[in-house]
Amino acid sequence: MPIKTWELDPNFKNEIMSEAGGEHLASCFQCSTCTLGCPITEIIPSYNPRKIIQMSLLGMREEVLSNPDLWVCLICQTCTARCPQDVRIADVLGVLRRIAEREEEAGNLKIDSPRPLFDKAFQHQLKKFGRLYDMGLAMEYYPKKEGSFIKGMLAMMKDYKDFGKRMFLKGKMGPLGGGSPVKGMLASKIKQKDVMKKIFEELGEGGKEK
Amino acid sequence: MSVNKLAYYPGCPSEGTAMEQHMSTEAVFEKLGVELVEVEDWNCCGAAEVEDPKLLYALNARNLAIAEKEDLDIVTPCSICYYNLERSNKALKADEALRTQLKGIDSSLDYNGKIKTKHVLDVFVNDIGLDEISSKLEKKVNVKVAPYYGCYIGRPPETAFDDPDNPVLMDKLIELIGGEIVPFNYMKTVCCGGPLMMTRGDIAFDMARKILDVAKNAGADCISLACPLCGMMLDGKQADIEKALGVTIGLPVIYITQLLGLALGIEPNKLGLNKNAVDTKEILGKVV
Ligand code: SF4
Ligand code: SF4
User: Fold this and answer.
1) Mutate to test the interface with A, among B15, B64, B83, B190 (most CBs of A within 10 A)
2) Cross-sheet strand order for the sheet of B180-181
3) Does any domain span residue B126?
4) B110 and B35 share a domain?
5) CB neighbours of residue B37 within 10 Å
6) Which of B76, B61, B72 shows the shortest CA–CA distance to B257?
7) What does the alpha-carbon distance between residue B167 and residue B247 come to, in Å, rounded to a whole number?
8) Domains, chain A, ordered by start
9) Residue of the CA atom closest to atom 1 of ligand 2
10) Are residues B17 and B115 in the same domain?
11) Please, which pLDDT band fits residue B162 given cuts at 50, 70 and 90?
12) How many domains does chain B have?
């Protein structure tokens, strides 16, 4: 597909480079080391971090931000470790995900992946309890992902039926597991929950600094 | 030995899916004569789900500040917690304005950059040292092991403490306790797929299966590892992977702290070896 030069956003690279993690974007010399070592490319041959970097440098803002591939990166850091130009691709992809999320919140983009929902549900547990509460995370994530409470519960049961039982039998989850009578069913809460609230209100999603 | 007391950051999975890693870490340090002081009222490090750097630094600043008050360096058995603690520590040490901003959010985030953050593998091999550990060994763990390192031990470069392509710290411990390393080099550092478990389970299963397959075909009795997310994928979900992909694997997956604990003569249940999802009895039979 030819690039429509009139649709390019020459400022996109500066936008990325002004965010923490995106600073080294312009050092890329397109050697493709990142793509060749990427474990996702091995599974999805069209997945190409080099190309995402080049499209970003060219200013193909919309194509880059709406690319569903942004959401299958494992943040495994293989690309970053091998890049001869210290581009820190894993961090650059993180910056692109954050910009995409902001665009979605502003109503300019629809992200084609449940991952932002998962990350948000995870963060909500930390904001509330200070630690990860698996059950709370699942109860928030599945209904949002599936679009309704019932569908969400069914999907959750499917995923957790065997795994949950296994963890229960090992005393790691469920009403009698984990060394306390209700471990896993209740959240493990920290005492200074107020600090978590302050942190997220200042720096979290939609926080004062955002 | 250059270390006798450390702050201990267990991480969220220590309370559930990775209890055995937590139990074995505490037991091993006790046996090695290193006192662990749990970071009081610790909070989650943000795992892979908090991507915003400043938010992540704030979460970790609180834990770092608690350990700093005790004047202790922090050790954690979880590779992801380590990565988050270490990169936050680096960022906070280098940036006074950031420290001031975080302190402004709450006084509990007042961290002065005075402590170090470490992964257990680093502490075992580089701080306590193989000679010291060797002098305390009571048993030979006569098993063939595929040492699996995953992502955050050898990369990214700013926080890595082992070689990115061929990490060796776990290999050294396994050889020290009488184990044999099977040919596994090219799989040592390939991601387990864990970060995609909840959003692209198909990819995650595919990735974890590859690691299990290679280890099994190499003749391993077990995989050893040092990260609770890898543990959940390779051990906790192994039966789900077998079912979903129509394969039989049945390969025990054991935290390095558990293997080391066995060699130190610690009782298996104290190391949580009855908590691994894939049965570990065969491995226990090879401890002599
Ligand atoms: S490895 Fe680095 S320099 Fe090479 S294409 Fe990827 S980002 Fe660019
Ligand atoms: S961090 Fe993402 S892009 Fe880089 S190698 Fe891993 S999966 Fe591929």
Assistant:
1) B15
2) B180-181, B144-147, B222-225, B253-255
3) no
4) yes
5) 14
6) B76
7) 29
8) 5-105 (1.10.1060.10), 115-203 (no CATH)
9) A75
10) yes
11) very high
12) 2
Residue showing tokens 């249940």: B269
- Token reading at B28: 């091993």
Bond from prior residue into B10 cis (ω within 30 degrees of 0):
no
Measure CA B217 to chain center.
24
Cβ(A90) – ligand 1 distance below 6 Å: no
CA distance linking residue B24 with residue B36, whole number of Å: 13
Ligand 1 proximity of A41 Cβ (cutoff 6 Å): no
Confidence of residue B211 (pLDDT cuts 50, 70, 90): very high
Q: Is B144 found in the same domain as B13? A: no
A30 CA closest ligand 1 atom index: 5
Helix axes A149-169, B238-245, angle to 10 degrees: 120
Of ligand 2's listed atoms, the one at least distance from the Cα of A49 is 3
Angle at B243 between CA B240 and CA B245, to 5 degrees: 105
B38 by DSSP, 3-state: which? strand
- pLDDT tens by residue, B246-267: 999 999 999 999 999 999 999 9
Alpha carbon distance B96, B102 (integer Å):
10
